Amino acid sequence: MRIAFSIPELAAIVGARSVEGAHTAPVSGIASLTEAGPDDLSFLGNPKYASEVAASRAGAILLAVDFPGKPAEGQVFFRVDKPSYALALVCSVLEARLWPKPPAGRHPSAIVSPEAKVDPTAFIGALCVIEAGAVIGPGAVLDAHCHIGRQAVVGPDCWLKSGVKVADFCTLGARCRLQPGAVVGADGFGFEPVQGDIRRIPQVGIVVLDDDVEIGANTTLDRARFSRTVVGRGTKIDNLVQIAHNVRIGRQCLITAQVGIAGSTTLGDHCVLGGQAGVAGHLTLGDRVKLGAQTGLFEDVPADGFMNGTPATPFGLERRLVVLSRRLPELFKKVDSLAASLDSAGR
Amino acid sequence: MRIAFSIPELAAIVGARSVEGAHTAPVSGIASLTEAGPDDLSFLGNPKYASEVAASRAGAILLAVDFPGKPAEGQVFFRVDKPSYALALVCSVLEARLWPKPPAGRHPSAIVSPEAKVDPTAFIGALCVIEAGAVIGPGAVLDAHCHIGRQAVVGPDCWLKSGVKVADFCTLGARCRLQPGAVVGADGFGFEPVQGDIRRIPQVGIVVLDDDVEIGANTTLDRARFSRTVVGRGTKIDNLVQIAHNVRIGRQCLITAQVGIAGSTTLGDHCVLGGQAGVAGHLTLGDRVKLGAQTGLFEDVPADGFMNGTPATPFGLERRLVVLSRRLPELFKKVDSLAASLDSAGR
Amino acid sequence: MRIAFSIPELAAIVGARSVEGAHTAPVSGIASLTEAGPDDLSFLGNPKYASEVAASRAGAILLAVDFPGKPAEGQVFFRVDKPSYALALVCSVLEARLWPKPPAGRHPSAIVSPEAKVDPTAFIGALCVIEAGAVIGPGAVLDAHCHIGRQAVVGPDCWLKSGVKVADFCTLGARCRLQPGAVVGADGFGFEPVQGDIRRIPQVGIVVLDDDVEIGANTTLDRARFSRTVVGRGTKIDNLVQIAHNVRIGRQCLITAQVGIAGSTTLGDHCVLGGQAGVAGHLTLGDRVKLGAQTGLFEDVPADGFMNGTPATPFGLERRLVVLSRRLPELFKKVDSLAASLDSAGR
Known about the structure:
The structure is a homotrimer.
Chain A: H1 7-14, E1 18-21, E2 29-30, E3 40-43, H2 51-55, E4 60-64, E5 76-80, H3 83-98, E6 105-106, E7 111-112, E8 117-118, E9 123-124, E10 129-130, E11 135-136, E12 141-142, E13 147-148, E14 153-154, E15 159-160, E16 165-166, E17 171-172, E18 177-178, E19 183-186, E20 191-194, E21 197-200, E22 206-209, E23 214-215, E24 220-222, E25 228-231, E26 236-237, E27 242-243, E28 248-249, E29 254-255, E30 260-261, E31 266-267, E32 272-273, E33 278-279, E34 284-285, E35 290-291, E36 296-297, E37 306-308, E38 313-314, H4 315-326, H5 328-346
Parallel strand pairs in A: 2-3, 3-4, 4-5, 6-9, 7-10, 8-11, 9-12, 10-13, 11-14, 12-15, 13-16, 14-17, 15-18, 16-19, 17-22, 18-23, 19-24, 22-25, 23-26, 24-27, 25-28, 26-29, 27-30, 29-32, 30-33, 31-34, 32-35, 33-36, 35-37
Antiparallel strand pairs in A: 1-5, 20-21, 37-38
């Protein structure tokens, strides 16, 4: 996957203020300061690693304008305003080269219903299945083995990685990215006890992803019991996350890996949920709510709330409780000692 | 996915005691009271939302016989015995229309071994792979991209959603429903250290799902080391659940999303496990055991036990411990104050 | 899946010191002492189950040389040095028969890019997709529906079960086993807020699995932001595990089901992580670190550390804190009583 950049090419991409040193060979990889070799570009993003620059074997390094060092023999320093941002610019160019958008068309092995509407500018990969009534928007890309159910909609410029499943009637907005194995529109988990048996409650709603949503690998989103399970514009969901039926997630939220959100819960905009957090059903979380990793939330949280622990407690209190709970051995001893003193005093 | 019901049609489906008001257009959606529009059916299932009825724009509303209000202009009230149940009746009709059982047959793209036995009344979807010796029962439906391993058995009237994998030799009873991406029969996680290396323990058992079992999207069930991993009749398992090798789950259990059950553990009938709960290996849980969400269980639980927290504690005690632990700051202060009093008294 | 072994055949496989009793029919299954029938082989691996031998209906039983009992009528006792190990020998033979390596070749339905390099001794299953530049090593086996991305490498003698996805540029060493639905090389979860929006950070690195790695069903491993996400030689990862971008796992680790490891964290060799444990990002764990099930780790751990609980605490302390926290009701009462005594003493 190595792609070569010449030094002048890199200087242009990163908007270098100056280029110091000389490095004739092209740069073909990116690595950290300690791991980079002569073919690699590296960067000093965090000043605490400044001491690693002198020993780095990187062929080229992105550095702040005021970094005091000089390049080693055969090494290039690019002076830039923000090294991390400069690196992201390189990565963006690299990504566009490594993952060029496939040309419009269909792999001949794809099974596309004659009743589906596939925009001629979309790309349908090998062995995809597109059912009757499905709509694939302009510029959309479906990698191999995707399945788009009946009357499901994949919006313009979506990119579905291999093996993504969008079930019947569900809809994706523009520019959504779905990682391999993601499932949009499984049945909600709705059952009720009927005379000792468990009877399934039909799940006839859908899942709606707004524009610019990202769904992680093997993440599952359940269709609503009725109406819609909704993910708001720009929200990013990591791998192996469970979103239950009728959940509504606002805009620009970050939902980290292995989070679970139970049925009918509503999240505001800009919420951030740490990994493996769990949210019970029928709750309401305001805008900008944060949950720490592994938090177990069983109550509503107003806007800007930051909860942690199980059961979830406001962050500051939770931190204090953790500190105090670690002092329990000391507390038990102190109470025993007080009891002994009082006892002897009472004699 | 909108399907139109006329008002008389709906009245018949829900068994309305009476129909009040007039609404000429057909009803084509279902929504909550606050979200419904003139084309939607809504319902008042919980009396605490009664005040929402007057403001609802729903074209038709399911209400209890004794609800005091009157329909707005162009709105219909259906009076029924149980509005929630009436809604489920509508959803059932809707589901049957939205997901009609496909006609018997095979998509020409399916790869079916000549040594597999597929009942002529079964449906095999596009790009499915059915290996030698597999048996697909009468009325079974396999959506696109399913894989049925050698000598695996899919019972009568099972419905496997897209991308389900049933590995070699595993068996499914009648009427099982498997959501997209579910994996039945991955290798159990069995390894033992041998002279500094980790050696794999062969896993030669199978998974057996009894009748009427439901498996969620991307859930995984491991084959037994030997003999069988078993899921009892009518048990429902949600998304992203892990069932390890040699686990035995009883009948009519509810296993919520992201639960993990470690190897060789046995559950009785009618158990209910909350989301993200974890159960250690080689345990025995009696009938009707309940575990709260995120519980971490490391000990046996007798019938009717209700455990919560990590490590799991009987529910009542756990609730009390949570309350007391939040009073730790107060307790530490009180003990300090007692110590000071005792100290000054002792002077 | 039943395969018959004659008694002399079994005696040879297990290296029996002696064979007692007579059983004319072949043995065709393996089961525990309590569940075995006349066609089954069973074993006494743990002396605490010794009393079950006399009542067992097993046709043949593996027993220690010094076990005092005698076989029942029509039953065979195999005397061996280590019954558990003897059983593993039988399972190994059984596994080799039940899962014979498919002959070299490609199923005609597989879509193999003419620019891919597939070793002639490899097996490519039905409906697999192998993209341009991919390399499939000698002896590798890909079951149905696998997807190997552009320039990805599958090493010699790997076995990929159905529906495995290896994304572009990622590489697998020799003899890796990947269970159904595993995803290697999804995008890392990298986003940064830019003026109220969340912008995606391109993820241009890869995933590298060293030799003899095992990946569980529906487990996900993310490609690095740049450079590599690494799993060391011989490490075994269970089902539904999340390995984030730039994580580096050492050799011979055991990562149990539903564990999550956040970005850029490094694990040493021989680490063991219990089920559902979570490890925060940018941490360093030394060799032989152990984490209990459901542990939430937010700090570095030196070699040989054993942590438990959330937030993770050294195991011994954590056990003590759990015991003390269950005595909180008693402690609160005691402090109240001390306060009352002091109060009355002060009067």
